[in-house]
Every structure is written in C-alpha cells, then in structure tokens.
User: What shape does this take?
Amino acid sequence: MHLAVILKVTGILLTLFSFVLVLPVAVGALYGEHTYAPFGWGFGITLVTGLLLMLAGRGEHELRSGDGFMITVLFYLGLGLFGSIPLFLAEPVSAGFTDAAFESLSALTTTGATVIVGLDDLPRSILFYRQLLQWFGGMGIIVLAVAILPMLGIGGMQLYRAESPGPVKDNKLTPRITETAKALWYLYLGITLLCAMCYWLAGMTPFDALCHSFSTVAIGGFSTHDASLGYFDNPTIEAIAIVFMVIAGINFGLHFMVLNRKNPLLYTQDREVRAYLFVLAIVSIVVCSLLVRHPDSSASPFREGIFQAVSIATTTGFATTNFSIWPSVAPVILLFAAFAGGCAGSTAGGIKIIRVLLIYLQGSREIKRLIHPNGVFHVKLGQQKVPDRVIEAVWGFFSVYVIAFLTLVSLVMYISNLDFLTAFSAVGACLNNLGPGLGDVAENYAGLSAGVKWALMFAMLLGRLEIFTLLVLFTPAFWRR
Assistant: This one.
C-alpha cells in the first residue's frame, strides 16, 4: 500500500468536490435565500483538507493494484462526512452531527433514507444540495474523477474496478478508461436532462423537475417534498418516473452500446435485462392483485401498485402512498424485490439481477447433475459460457451478503429496542440502498438512536461498494501487501 499516493488522490477528489458546494449557493442566491454561511464553511473546510492531503502526497504518481480499494472507501466515507458540514451548520435543518452524516451518506450512496422532516419548508438551496449529492453518487463520483486523474499524471483503472458495480469489473466500453468514464457521464447527464424536461412538461416547476430528475436517474428517491411524488398527485409524472426508473436500472454499458450501434434490439438480446423486466412485471402483477383483493387499501390499485412495485424493486424509494400499511404480504414482497435490485452496471442497489440469474442457473445445473451424474453441463448466458470463477465469485458474494445482513440485523436489535420487522427492514433498506423500510422506519429514520444510525451508515457503504471493496480493508492480508 502506498500511503502518499492514496493521500494525494483522496485530496484531489476532495478538492474537486469542494467546488460542488458552490452550486447550492448559486441556487440560494437565485431564490433570495441567506444560506451562504453553511456552504461557505463546507467549501472552505473541504478545500483546505483536500489541498493539505495533496501536499502530503506530493511527488507520488504510481497508483497500484489494491490502492483503489482504500481510496474508494476513504473518499466515500470522507465525502459523506465533509458533505454533512452544510447540513450540520444550516439552522433550518437543525441536525446534529450524526443526523447530518446520515443524511449526507444516505444521499451519496443513493440510499434515500432520510432523517429530515419538514422538507416543504426548507430553503431550496438545501433541497437542491440533497438531490445533487444523490446525483453525483448515482454513477459514482469516483468514475467522474477517473476521467480527470490521468490529466494529473495518475492512472484511474484501479479506481474504476473498485467502484464499478457488478460481478465482472474488467469490461471497458472504450479502449481507454478515461474515455469510458467520459462516455458513462455524458450518457448519465443526457438521460438526466431528458428526465428533467419530461417532468417539466408534465407539470412540475423547473426546480422540482431538475431535482427529481437527479434522484430518479440516480435511483436515490430523495424528494423536495415530504409526500415524495405523491405531493403532485399526477399520473403523468408517475408514468415518467416509472419509465426513467426502469431505464436507470439497466446497465449503462448496455445503454452506451445501444446508442453507439443504433440497435435497440440489443436490449431484448440481453438476458439480464429480460430477467430484470420479468421481475418488475411479476412483482407489479402480484402487488396489484393483492390490492384488488383488498379494495379498501387503495383507491387506485393498479396505478399505486405498479408505481410502488417499480420504485421499490429498482431500489429508488419514491412513494405515492404509505405502502408499509398495505394488507397481506404486499409490503414484504416489495422489500424482498429490492434485495434483487437492478442490473449490474446501473445506478440501482441490491444484489443485482445478474447475480440472482447466475445463482438460479447454477441451481438448475446442480439439479441436472443429480439426475445425470456423468453429464457435463455449463452455465450459459445466451450462447456465452460463464467461467466457473465468476460463479464462485457470485456465490461468495451472496454468502458474505447474507452473513453481513444477518449480523447487522442482530447488531441493530442488540443495541436498540427495535422490533424484528423494523430492524430487518431498516438494515435491508440500507444495505440494498433502498431507503424506505417497514415498521418504525416506514416514513423516516429520525426516531432511531445514534448507534443504530451509525450501524445503518455502515450498511449503506457496504451496499454501495458491494461489500468486498469495504470488507477487504478488514483483512490482515491487505495490510501485509
């Protein structure tokens, strides 16, 4: 491990992030708000810290394999803490350090779990800042920085592999990693602007349209209103949200290939996308059928059922109603759907559909082996054989995921008096970067103790960094390199 270059790169990234804090100031000035101080302090503290870290690592340029894990974790953790400064200092928010850190990290990891109430009365600069954090976290600020670091004499492939979601991390859309990062961000920006335009044409104000496009494409779920998208009570807006949530839950690499080759049929040829859409359809049908069987639970069972099914299954977390009080098993089905999440390479959370699909195919292969002991069977995605190393990695991830989830549920129940449903759903919602849970965390997380909030912040990081990127730092072998 090369401490100097790690400090230098982390300092560069923090320095770049400090200038993001200028944007909310501009929004505040536009609406005549006096919120300069909290963002000014946040900008100054973050900038000075970043510059000091850069000076501490000056002269070092070589970023080796494994250093990316440390930088990724330090940056997400550091950005969560430094990003909390404006929320901590802003008087309208009235948040303690723990709550400010929770909100900031929840935004950065696109979890969408909030401890802030009274959103409708907050300054627009604060609301914009929350949404902006989610948008940057959606694709990964690390990937954005990868496009800039080579110009500073530092390679970025190690960072891309550490932050990039999914079981296969070596695929590049273009020959150079810098061009890959740029391609991803241009695509991400284009989809965001298109989403904002659609929201605006459907009846949102320009401010709400831009803010909600940030959280929709990032699959974050933060809103500028306490009632989330239910505030607008507009079927067209909900339909637009459904379309863009589905789009954001698909591998952005596949989006790039479709645009590059001008061939939309690539979506139908991708087995993960087909499985993803199948899961969304099944969950929607089941939830809608349950609501129809209980007519008193919803005035619009199909409208609310489909919207909440897509919102929760993609781990976005938008709400038009309190789904946690729906009858029968509907809330539990929605929560379990979030465990699968979206496609690898998307902004969605969860285990990822590709892993679920590979686990299913591996299970099918084992059944065939029981029936035909001497047979030779391969796991294939389409016509492509999946290497056994990938299958092993998927099972390893799933095993550690389950162990981490159960451990965190037990820890939360041990350090608090929460009931099992609340603890189970809170950890599941944070680990899957979903946001809303069941029980006491159905609406917000404000009532939880500080210890529980820090445990859930750890779960958010585990989920966003796909567990191993963070857990590898706790192994003695990493520090003996």
